[in-house]
Amino acid sequence: MKLGKMFLIFIVAGVAMLALIILPVAGLFTHQFALDPGGLISAASSSEVWGAIGLSCFAAFLSVLVAFIFGVPLAYMLARRDFRGKGFIESAIDVPVVIPHTVAGIALVIVFGMFDSTVTGIVIAMTFVSAPLLINSAKEGFRSVNPRLEKVARTLGASEWQAFHKVAFPLAFPHILSGAIMSWARAISEFTAVIMLVGFYPMIAPGLMWRKFWTGGLPAAIPIAVILIVICLVVFVVLRHIQARL
């Protein structure tokens, strides 16, 4: 089939966008494997590196869990109810996404400064910056579910809770899972807010990369970045595969 001019323009634009995304990541791998393969082996055998990456992944998972437990009910309420102040709440949820990372860090220090140098502090900072992604995705998921389906369940004898977890939640779950995936990715990538609230200990992966960069330059930081990208890519592929099968 012959493509029209519009689609050709869109293809060119799409290729340019993909190049902007892929080339920097490809450059990391090319630089690592072509110039310093030994550095990757050294990093892959370092307990410090795996400890920082493991802590980042675990804390990010906990932040998603917190956002799920408290955020999904909020998302359902926003999707199903109209009330005074709803617009303010929806705007407030988006604040962590739009403010600079340094502002987020300062705000967190003021309220949660007592969690300095703790894993709890890391989870709080990650939850603050990443929860909006899960909440907003869950809200759109619930909005996509026809309320009449829940009403039918209620007329058949289901309680309000049963209508929620047997009808609305399963139908909205693909959106919730998508939001959870992006929330985890956002959490694991956070640096500024975590470092400002917690400091460099316990050490997360972005913090370790920053320290390695300033003490040893690119050769010391790139292997950690490559390992983290590979781990995140594997997790993303598995979760996206699960999501596609729902």
Summarize the structure.
It is built from 11 helices and no strands. The protein has helices at 5-35, 37-44, 47-80, 86-98, 101-112, 119-143, 147-155, 160-189, 192-198, 205-216, 218-244.
Overview of this structure, please?
The protein is an all-alpha fold and 246 residues long. The protein has one domain: MetI-like (MetI-like fold, Orthogonal Bundle). It is 85% helix and 0% strand. The chain is globular. The model has no long low-confidence stretch (mean pLDDT 89).
Structure keywords:
246 residues; mainly alpha; MetI-like fold; 85% helix; globular
The CATH architecture term is Orthogonal Bundle
CATH topology: MetI-like fold
Task: Average the pLDDT over all residues and give the rounded result.
Answer: 89
Please identify the top-level CATH class: Mainly Alpha
Report the CATH superfamily.
MetI-like
SSE layout and pairings?
Blueprint: H1 5-35, H2 37-44, H3 47-80, H4 86-98, H5 101-112, H6 119-143, H7 147-155, H8 160-189, H9 192-198, H10 205-216, H11 218-244
Helix pairs in contact: 1-2, 1-11, 2-11, 3-6, 3-8, 3-10, 4-6, 5-6, 5-9, 6-8, 6-9, 7-8, 8-11, 10-11
